[in-house]
Amino acid sequence: IPPGMFPVVTNDRPTSAAWPAQAAEEIIAGLRCVVGGQPGPVLLLIHGLGATAEVWTGVATIAEQRWPGYWLAADLPGHGGSARSATGDYNFAMMAAALARVLRAVAPAEPVTALGHSLGGVLALELAGGRHATPVECAIGIGIKVGWTEAELGLLGPVAGRRVLELGAGGAQGARWLAGQGAHAVALDLS
């Protein structure tokens, strides 16, 4: 994995991740979004549960150079800089509907390729299913959990709202321990 591909972030404020210089960060339909590229087909980058859009900075850098249209990475509802659910309800349909509102605001008539990791992959498939009136022509899910129990579904809200501790210089000992286990530190939740 190239250094900086998956930077460590807090759940409240992203670190100075390496977004392409041309990228714009804004709140769209209640979600914190980072948008780049130019008019044309949309590449929607959807993170997994408990993460933020920053997991896509490496892909966004490549998309800025190679994707023929817009690329968009958003913090899902209750994650990072995005609004929390007013009702406390977090489910696949609600999160996909939030992403659909963003797509309609950014490029309503453009075809969409939705690329998601884990929960993001589930949401990509939900968007492609046709219930949200989005022109998703291609959905790609990476590392999707296909079987969800009611108890696991009930954890979507609480996990989305957890704070994620940034491992800076003080996290060197934890990073060394993880490296000794054959792992790479992306984020650590100590709440």
Q: Which residue ranges are poorly predicted, with pLDDT under 50 across at least 5 consecutive positions?
A: 1-16, 164-170, 187-191
Q: Quick one: how many beta strands?
A: 6
Mean pLDDT: 82
Structural class: alpha/beta
How many H/I helices?
6
Helix fraction by DSSP (H/I, runs of at least 4): 25-40%
- Based on CA inertia axes, which overall geometry fits? globular
Q: Strands of the largest sheet, in order across it?
A: 1-2-4-3-5-6
Oligomer: single chain
Strand-and-helix sequence, N→C? EEEHEHEHEHHH
Strand count, sense and barrel status of the largest sheet are: 6 strands, mixed
Distance between the termini: 27 Å
| Rg over alpha carbons | 16 Å
Work out the strand percent.
Answer: 15-25%
